[in-house]
Design goal:
Layout lengths: L2 H21 L2 E2 L2 E6 L5 E5 L2 E6 L2 E6 L7 E7 L4 E7 L2 E6 L4 E5 L7 E6 L4 E7 L2 E6 L2 E6 L7 E7 L6 E4 L3 E7 L5 E7 L7 E6 L5 E8 L4 E10 L5 E12 L5 E9 L3 E7 L2 E6 L3 E6 L7 E7 L6 E5 L2 E5 L4 E5 L1 H4 L1 E4 L9 E2 L10 E8 L3 E8 L5 E10 L2 E8 L6 E9 L2 E9 L2
Antiparallel strand pairs: 1-26, 2-29, 3-4, 4-5, 5-6, 7-8, 8-9, 9-10, 11-12, 12-13, 13-14, 15-16, 16-17, 17-18, 19-20, 20-21, 21-22, 23-24, 24-25, 25-26, 27-28, 28-29, 30-35, 31-32, 32-35, 33-34, 33-36, 36-37
């Protein structure tokens, strides 16, 4: 082999090693499957995942995660920028065909039933009988009680329009670009959805802005970006996940926040956890049970560029541009805390039950002091098989469900490390 061919071989091999290692960097999250489907947005309902990209909707049967398959698809007349589901209908926001209603009662043959073409949509969120649309002009409210005959009931012009939208029982949160191209957040009271009342605008400016928003019935969860210049004149950016308490009058209290790796594009909520995807090609899982101290507890560096995520149980579906990826988050989402009137006075590591076990077993432990906790499983050679817990925890009693269905039968060891406390127990997996 001549020198030029040898050099090319070494460079190619190095790139493959770097890329393969990079794509698999993770903590507490495992990839279950990937499908070569163009995907920008994803939602999951019952046994189906609905995936959109460009002007195409694809329906994936996910009843069996290990053997998903495409059941149907539909070409729409314009690019899809967002969608939501109500009953047997998808309400799809497009860039030039307005709001399109798609009947998916038969997943083999989804069909367009009607549309409202006089609006240019960017995003959509549904609450009850109303669809709230972020539009090129601002926002619109659509009555969708009768999906065959939808009608606009309110529309407002706001600055440079609306880009993203979230809604709960009382408020609408609209991200709206400002003069500098960053997003402010406009808040509207929708106690009367027919006539939303403007509450206030959370201003950003040149050096900061909002990148994503979601909400439950009490709190608002936002991604934000802030620019700053160091002493040498170099510009940097920080990206933050924030939990806000916004009162009826619009007063805002930042309950808690934490830094994340990149600009957040989507936030999804499930019980006491939040899942986000960001511009650094990362799926991140946060524990938000302590609103004053949200904490990153797991992540997966995705090989594709993620733009949306849906969560069902412990499984996350991530739209990654040219593929849809399915991730198992059970290791970190299955940690349960049992609250009592008094905290444990000592650390404890209880025997798992059942043991021996077939497929799953429950591991219980008690933490006496706040601190970093590590709960890991090793095989007989001392190789780490999986990390069940690897984050900070408050005092309390915890239980973790360990799923060994993908491991070979045999003897394993579980090690708990919490501060100076360390203990290892033997577990036996049967098949």
């Amino acid at each position: 082999m001549n020198r030029s061919k040898l050099f090319l071989f070494v460079i190619t091999l190095s790139m493959l090693i770097v890329l393969s290692g990079w794509a698999q960097d993770s903590s507490g999250v495992n990839c279950l499957n990937r499908f070569q489907i163009r995907s920008r947005s994803v939602k999951v309902s019952d046994d189906y995942a609905y995936i959109t990209a460009d002007s195409v909707l694809t329906i994936l049967n996910i009843r069996n995660i290990d053997s998903c398959f495409i059941t149907g698809s539909c070409n729409l007349p314009a690019e899809i920028l967002g969608f939501d589901k109500s009953g047997n209908n998808l309400f799809i926001a497009t860039d030039s065909a307005g709001l399109v209603v798609l009947d998916v009662s038969n997943p083999l043959h989804p069909s367009i039933t009607t549309s409202l073409s006089q609006i240019v949509c960017n995003d959509i969120a549904i609450h009850g009988n109303f669809a709230f649309i972020a539009t090129l002009q601002g926002y619109s409210v659509i009555n969708i009680q009768n999906p065959d005959s939808i009608r606009m009931i309110d529309s407002q012009i706001i600055g440079f329009g609306g880009s993203k939208i979230a809604v709960n029982a009382n408020k609408v949160y609209l991200l709206a670009p400002n003069f500098y191209g960053n997003n402010d957040m406009d808040i509207f009271d929708i106690t009367n959805p027919i006539s939303p009342r403007f509450v206030r605008t959370l201003m950003s400016g040149y050096s900061s802005g909002f990148t994503a928003v979601n909400c439950d019935n009490i709190r608002t969860f936002v991604g934000s970006m802030e620019r700053y210049t160091d002493s040498h004149g170099f510009e940097h950016r920080t990206y933050t996940f924030n939990i806000l308490d916004i009162s009826e009058t619009g007063d805002v209290v930042v309950e808690g926040s934490c830094n994340v790796s990149g600009s957040i594009s989507t936030i999804k909520l499930t019980n006491e956890f939040a899942l986000i995807v960001d511009a650094t090609q990362r799926l991140t899982v946060l524990n938000i049970s302590n609103h004053s101290n949200p904490e990153v507890i797991g992540y997966y560096d995705t090989p594709g560029i993620p733009s949306d995520v849906a969560i069902v149980g412990n499984v996350a579906f991530v739209a990654e541009e040219n593929q849809l990826a399915i991730y198992d988050c059970s290791q970190i989402l299955s940690v349960e805390k049992r609250f009592s009137e008094t905290n444990p006075i000592s650390f404890a590591f209880l025997p798992n039950y059942p043991n021996p076990f077939n497929a799953t077993t429950t591991i219980k432990y008690a933490i006496a002091q706040t601190g970093k906790v590590s709960l890991k499983v090793f095989d007989l050679t001392g190789r780490e098989v999986t990390s069940l817990v690897d984050f900070r925890q408050d005092p309390g009693e915890y239980s973790v469900k360990f799923d060994g269905s993908r491991l070979a039968a045999g003897t394993y060891f579980v090690r708990l490390q919490a501060g100076a406390f360390s203990k290892t127990q033997k577990i036996v997996l049967l098949k």
